[in-house]
Amino acid sequence: MTPTNLPRWTDEAPEPGVPEAPPRHVAIIMDGNGRWAAARGLPRLEGHRRGVEALRKAIRAAHELGVRHLTLYSFSVENWSRPAEEVSDLMNLLRLFIRRDLAELHKANIRIRVIGERGNLPPDILGLLVEAETTTRANTGLDLVVAFNYGARQEIVSAVRRIAEAARDGRLDPAKIDAGLISDHLDTADIPDPDLVIRTSGELRISNFLLWQSAYAEFAFLPMHWPDFDKQAFEEAVASYRSRQRRYGGRLAARAGA
Ligand code: FPP
């Protein structure tokens, strides 16, 4: 990955209508590692390992396709309920990923941010996540948002709690609570809402991912399992996004004769 391949992103909010620019923010639910492995008679861990390779491809493709922010759902708050061995495998893959890839991501001018709950993470994992954020803080290229130990309902609960505390302490007038204020209290406070949410593996669910932020996102549900995701799949999802009419609940200006 080289920083010379300048992306064509825009900081402008998308206008209603058929998008002219690539999606500013793409968020991905990387699903199907286990089924990919099972279909090949391989252990689940092999599916997750291949999932990390697909994740690298997705980062490179986002950079090349001119996406500004890429959010990857890497570990949900619900994933703790998996067998301890699988949880441990996923933690180890994150350790490996940061240790092996951080220098290259930094060189590619990628900024890493982490969203999700930090309180109950193993201390070394937290240390690595903070190191990734600190090392890349000043980078101006692709914004890579890693959703780790993330749950959208938990994120909203935590925001509501802080807003309620501010109101109770007289620091906030409840009449001033609006959608913008709630957005500002989420982990994604300074990241624009996703324009496109991709989910692999054929499941048609959002699974507690960016519930508030996806209010007007376009969705692409792909039949392939995550380890098979590649630049072509990313391009096709973006092409599909660019053929949609985004209306944000309104109506587009009437066409002549329509
Ligand atoms: C879904 O597959 C995948 C996850 C649990 C999260 C994504 C994980 C990776 C891409 C690999 C780990 C990478 C890091 C950086 C932690 P699944 O196990 O739910 O698949 P299934 O639904 O087919 O069982």
CATH superfamily of the domain at 25-151 and 193-242: Decaprenyl diphosphate synthase-like
Task: Give the overall shape, derived from the CA principal axes.
Answer: globular
Order of helices and strands: EHHEHEHEHHEEH
Tell me how many strands there are: 6
Helix/strand class:
alpha/beta
Give the fraction of residues assigned to helices.
Answer: 25-40%
| Terminal CA distance | 47 Å
| Beta-strand proportion | 5-15%
Region (Disordered): 1-23
Keywords: Magnesium, Metal-binding, Transferase
InterPro entries: UPP_synth-like (IPR001441), UPP_synth-like_CS (IPR018520), UPP_synth-like_sf (IPR036424)
Function: Catalyzes the condensation of isopentenyl diphosphate (IPP) with allylic pyrophosphates generating different type of terpenoids.
Describe the structure.
- The radius of gyration is 19 Å and the shape is globular.
- Helix 4 links the parallel strand 3 and strand 4 (143-150).
- Strands 3-4-2-1-5-6 form a six-stranded parallel sheet, with helices on both faces.
- It has helices at residues 33-39, 44-65, 84-107, 123-136, 152-168, 179-184, 231-241, and strands spanning 25-29, 69-76, 111-115, 143-150, 196-199, 218-221.
- Helix 1 crosses helix 2 (44-65).
- 35% of the residues are buried.
- It has a domain at 25-151 and 193-242: Decaprenyl diphosphate synthase-like (Undecaprenyl pyrophosphate synthetase).
- The protein is an alpha/beta fold and 258 residues long.
- Its EC number is 2.5.1.-.
- Substrate binds at residues 32-36, 44, 48, 76-78, 80, 82, 199, 205-207.
